[in-house]
Write a structure and sequence with these properties.
Elements lengths: L47 H6 L4 E3 L1 E2 L3 E4 L14 E5 L10 E4 L4 E5 L16 E6 L4 E3 L21 E2 L10 E2 L12 H8 L10 E2 L3 E4 L7 E2 L94 E4 L2 E4 L30 E3 L4 E3 L7 E4 L7 E4 L12 E5 L7 E6 L17 E2 L9 E6 L5 E5 L21 E3 L2 E3 L9 E2 L16
């Protein structure tokens, strides 16, 4: 068997061997391939020098802080394979959140740490040499910046009093209790100030002297010296009713004069509403009291007095005079003072205005409107003064044509309405227009007649006067026009109907005439 074949063909640039090359020498120096240079294609053999340099899986990154790109050379990757590693020098720190890397345009893949977590900002530093390994889905960050003093991972934290909150294996809160008389803990600010301000040994109080005496140490009973409490030592306004003993028996000479209204209740006095000697006067439930002789100077009105048995002196004010002769001042009695059933006779009322006049109110005072002429009647003026008018019909208004609105005058209580419809047109007597025949003209029918009384007139009414019918003067045997309808409000008087003309021969026979009078 030939162990080594040397081929030296100067005229060819490459040698193709389609069989395996078996380097089976027992001497390592003889079982090797030498002279392999830098690779340039994916199927090139790799020398130890190239492997040690790491140049096949290393490059400097490009792109952005959240989307890195990498171009490996001289040979580009054909696809991502599980377990493959790449290294790059970061050109910029990473941003927080999702960060990707795209190698040789194969598409972006997420970079994760701790298997599945997104990177925190700065997990990749500017200029850092970063190693990534592909897990089939994402690139895992293998090179992380760590604190130089870190020494491991804490998996649980236990606590003992006064600390609380343990055992913590994930997240939790550690607290500390407030110290008590029987357990350790932290001091409150109040307790700390008390402790900090305590007197040093030898300076604490062991006894009290003066107005208040006591002997210590520890809890002691203090005693106020006799006559030690004076007015100057009591703050003004501090003593209340509960501070005074119920049997104190304070004498009235030590009480100040009571001058404020309502400070003494009636129940605390000997007052009475009866006529009792040497007692205070107390009104009864109706505000009255009984008394004997009252000597007083009265003024003003005695509005509720009903009798005055005896008084001396003279009265002044609204009632003047003496007991035997009193007078009520003018203008004192008002309308409210007069009983609704007083029945004051008219003869006691003062005369006002002319004889025969009528007294009416103008809204402020009573006024006389003066006397009217004999036979006149009084009509209301609404809110104004009543007036005298002649008896019978008044204010007659006549319409002979046209239409419009009739406004009812103020004070009118009834309307007499007389209506006539327009008369029908009559026939004419004309020989020449009837081919030598005689014809006789006759009058048209009269318009309808209506007469009525409206007892409660409205404020206004619309009206229309019917016109008379037209007369035929040209056409033999033709009819004339009907009369027009007359209306007033809802009332209607129809117009008259035209005459019917009959023709006759020269023999002079009388032509019959049919008249259709208007209908109401």
């Amino acid at each position: 068997m030939v162990s080594l074949v040397l081929i030296s063909i100067a005229t060819f640039s490459q040698v193709q061997i389609d069989k395996p090359i078996d380097l089976n020498s027992s001497t390592p120096a003889n079982a090797r391939i030498m002279g392999i240079k830098q690779v340039s294609a994916a199927q090139d053999a790799v020398s130890a020098e190239v492997l040690q340099s790491g140049s096949l899986i290393y490059a400097t990154s490009a792109g952005t802080s959240s989307a890195y790109t990498l171009s490996l050379s001289p040979v580009a990757l054909g696809s991502y394979t599980t377990g493959m590693e790449i290294r790059f020098k970061a050109h910029t720190p990473n941003a927080a959140g999702a960060v990707t890397i795209d190698v040789n345009g194969l598409g972006p893949k997420n970079i994760k740490k701790d298997v599945s977590n997104n990177l925190a900002a700065g997990d990749i530093a500017n200029g850092q040499l970063v190693t990534l390994a592909y897990d089939g889905t994402n690139f895992q960050l293998l090179s992380r910046l760590t604190d130089a003093n870190s020494g491991g991972t804490v998996t649980s934290i236990g606590t003992t009093g006064p600390l609380t909150g343990g055992t913590i294996t994930g997240t939790g809160t550690i607290g500390i209790n407030l110290a008590t008389a029987s357990s350790n803990g932290y001091l409150s600010s109040t307790d700390w100030n008390t402790f900090n301000n305590k007197q040093p040994a030898g300076n604490y109080i062991t006894a009290l002297s003066g107005d208040v005496t006591a002997t210590g140490p520890g809890s002691v009973t203090a005693t106020i010296a006799p006559n030690a409490v004076t007015s100057a030592k009591i703050l003004n306004g501090e003593i209340v009713d509960a501070d005074i003993n119920g049997s104190a028996g304070i004498v009235d000479t030590k009480l100040a004069t009571i001058s404020t209204s309502g400070k003494v209740s009636n129940s605390a006095t000997t007052g009475t509403a009866s006529n009792t000697a040497n007692t205070l006067v107390l009104r009864d439930g109706s505000g009255n009291f009984s008394a004997g002789t009252i000597t007083a100077a009265l003024s003003g009105n005695a509005s509720t007095a009903t009798t005055a048995t005896n008084f001396s002196g003279s009265l002044a004010g609204d009632i003047t005079g003496t007991q035997g002769a009193t007078n009520i001042a003018a203008g004192v009695i008002v309308n409210a003072d007069v009983s609704a059933t007083a029945g004051i006779a008219y003869s006691k009322l003062a005369s006002s205005g002319a004889a025969g006049g009528v007294i009416y109110s103008n809204g402020t005072v009573l006024t006389n409107n003066g006397a009217g002429t004999a036979g006149m009647v009084l009509t209301s003026g609404g809110a104004g003064a009543p007036t005298w008018v002649s008896a019978g019909l008044s204010g007659i208004t006549t319409y002979t044509s046209g239409s419009g609105t009739y406004t009812v005058p103020a004070g009118v209580r009834k309307l007499l309405v007389v209506m006539v419809g327009g008369g029908g047109g009559g026939g004419s007597a004309n020989y020449s227009g009837c081919a030598g025949l005689y014809h006789i003209g006759s009058g048209g029918g009269a318009g309808g007649y209506l007469e009525g009384v409206i007892t409660s007139p409205a404020a206004s009414y619309s009206y229309s006067v019917g016109a008379g019918g037209t007369v035929n003067t040209t056409t033999c045997g033709a009819a004339a026009g009907n009369g027009g309808t007359t209306t007033f409000g809802t009332f209607t008087a129809n117009g008259g109907v035209v005459a019917i003309i009959q023709s006759a021969e020269r023999r002079g026979q009388a032509a019959p005439v049919e008249l259709q009078p208007g209908v109401v």
